[in-house]
Specification:
- The chain has 4 helices and 10 strands, in the order βααβββαβαβββββ.
- The protein is 21% helix and 38% strand.
- The N and C termini lie far apart (32 Å).
- It is an alpha+beta fold.
- Strands 1, 2, 3, 4, 5, 6, 7, 8, 9 and 10 form a 10-stranded mixed beta sheet that branches.
Length: 175
């Protein structure tokens, strides 16, 4: 594997790298990912390169989550985890995520929403088993079909994954 990994704040991502990240995520997620990358303007990107080509990517941003009825936590919320289809199953995505894990230490835990439970479990993530909600103003919206996972940060308490988890509403994608 000739993968070079760089950690780049969104404001420092070059226009070419931004274009390649959008192209990669658009291909993998089968939708125009440009609005999502624009929405994640305060994120930090973890970019995997072969030569100068972006072949794998993930990002994280700060997101406030409420555990149970009161504990407010700062999560390192992970988005846009993608690897070029022809590079999948070569360890690129795992390498990018392991690098990202190194930066979650400033948060209470990592969190993400996914349909690929088993892959994230292999990287040390665990499913949130309690009910999940989105708060929009005074409205609380149940999101039972959203699969949320957390990554326990070494040395920090692991939240009780059987109680409720609530996030504030955001545009484009609730979780």
């Amino acid at each position: 594997m000739s993968l070079r990994i760089e950690v780049i704040p969104a404001a420092q991502l070059s226009a070419e790298d931004r274009r390649q990240v959008i192209d990669l995520c658009s291909e993998v997620f089968e939708l125009d990912y440009a609005p999502f990358i624009a929405e994640f303007s305060n994120a930090t990107h973890v970019v995997g390169y072969e030569a100068n080509e972006v072949v794998s990517h993930a990002l994280w941003l700060r997101r406030t989550l409420r555990v149970g009825t009161g504990q407010v936590c700062n999560a390192g919320y992970v988005e846009a985890v993608a690897t070029r289809p022809e590079r999948q199953r070569l360890g690129y995505g795992s390498a990018v995520m392991r690098r990202l894990h190194e930066y979650l230490t400033e948060y209470d835990f990592g969190a993400l929403s996914t349909g690929r439970i088993e892959w994230y479990e292999s990287l040390g993530w665990q499913q949130w088993l309690g009910p999940r909600y989105i708060r929009r103003g005074s409205e609380i919206i149940a999101t039972p079909d959203d699969r949320v996972m957390i990554y326990a940060v070494p040395g920090k308490p692991v939240p009780d994954v059987t109680v409720s988890l609530t996030a504030d509403w955001r545009p484009l994608e609730l979780w």
